[in-house]
Design brief:
Elements: E1 10-11, E2 25-27, E3 41-45, E4 65-70, E5 73-77, E6 92-96, H1 97-103, H2 108-126, E7 138-139, E8 146-147, E9 154-155, E10 160-169, E11 174-180, E12 191-194, H3 201-213, E13 216-228, E14 233-243, E15 255-262, H4 275-284
Parallel strand pairs: 2-5, 10-14
Antiparallel strand pairs: 1-4, 3-6, 4-5, 7-8, 8-9, 10-11, 10-12, 11-15, 13-14
Length: 288
């Protein structure tokens, strides 16, 4: 999965005094008003995340913001880059996350770091002003937090719990696979959705399954979890067993397809990055 980056070691501990070195990774994201790549685009150089030595002699005046550490090397976010500073003919290219995922031509650990950096990038961008009193905010010097100097309101990075669910018909040994409506994703997925206020994760599983497919389930079993930074998710995977009728009543606004597949019929996603694909593979290989 995307976060499985052995032998690399990811350390998300906040550091008050970080070390900016020539080999420090620098994350730069496209302006969401740019129609060519949108907000979900990360700057790469020659199929890698650029390092500080690529930027510091190009007139970059901004002091980058510390993000996290990989293999003992601090990584930073550059919030603003002057037009024309990074040129495509010199190897600098904005790449959408979908393109990076499909082409897989940058190292997997850099892909994971970029997704996580993008989560923090959005957090900084969305909290320039205090949501309580409207004052300009500042970054805390003692923890990863944004603080209002006027009223003291403190904001931490947003993490959104969501579930992805392998629904299994034990009588016929089949799994329910889906395709999302209104999204250009050309491979199968599972029923998934966000946890609502006051819900447990298990209640989310039952509600999302019923809302999207009209099916009832029980014997809900935890499988694993995964950070998915481009949408602030902490995705939690479950398998569960069908109860009663296997007749599907598909929510057409959410899904364009929902069908039962045998282990032999399951077609996996083209990459091994997602928790959803891991669940599908586990069923296909007889481990669920």
């Amino acid at each position: 999965m995307i976060h499985e980056i052995d032998p690399h070691i990811f350390n998300n501990q906040f550091k008050k005094n970080s070390e900016l070195r020539d080999d420090s990774l620098i994350f730069i994201f496209g302006n969401e008003n740019e129609t060519s790549f949108g907000g979900g685009a990360v700057m790469t150089k020659d199929h890698h995340i650029p390092v500080y030595s690529d930027l510091k002699f190009r007139g970059a005046e901004e002091v980058p913001v510390f993000l996290f550490n990989i293999d003992g090397r601090d990584c930073f976010l550059m919030k603003h880059v002057s037009d024309g500073l990074l040129k495509e003919e010199e190897g600098f290219v904005f790449r959408s996350f979908r393109d990076v995922r499909n082409v897989q031509d940058i190292p997997k650990h850099e892909h994971f770091l970029a997704m996580t950096a993008f989560q923090l990038h959005n957090w900084y961008k969305n909290n320039v002003f205090c949501g309580r009193c409207g004052s300009k905010t500042i970054s805390s010097e003692k923890e990863r937090a944004i603080v209002c100097p006027s009223c003291g309101h403190t904001v931490y990075p947003r993490i959104v719990p969501a579930v992805t669910v392998a629904i299994i018909d034990r009588e016929r040994e089949k799994i329910l696979l889906t395709e999302y409506a209104g999204r250009a994703i050309p491979f199968y997925a599972l029923v998934a959705g966000f946890t609502e206020i006051g819900e447990t994760l298990e209640e989310t599983v039952k509600r999302e399954v019923m809302e999207e497919t009209g099916l009832k389930v029980d014997n809900i079993r935890y499988y694993g979890s995964q950070p998915w930074g481009i949408v602030d998710d902490l995705m939690v995977g479950f398998s569960c067993d069908l109860v009663g009728s296997n007749e599907i009543h598909r929510d057409e606004e959410e899904l364009k397809l929902a069908e039962w597949f045998s282990r032999e019929e399951v077609v996996l996603q083209p990459t091994d990055l997602s928790l959803t694909n891991s669940l599908m593979r586990a069923f296909k290989e007889g481990r669920l």
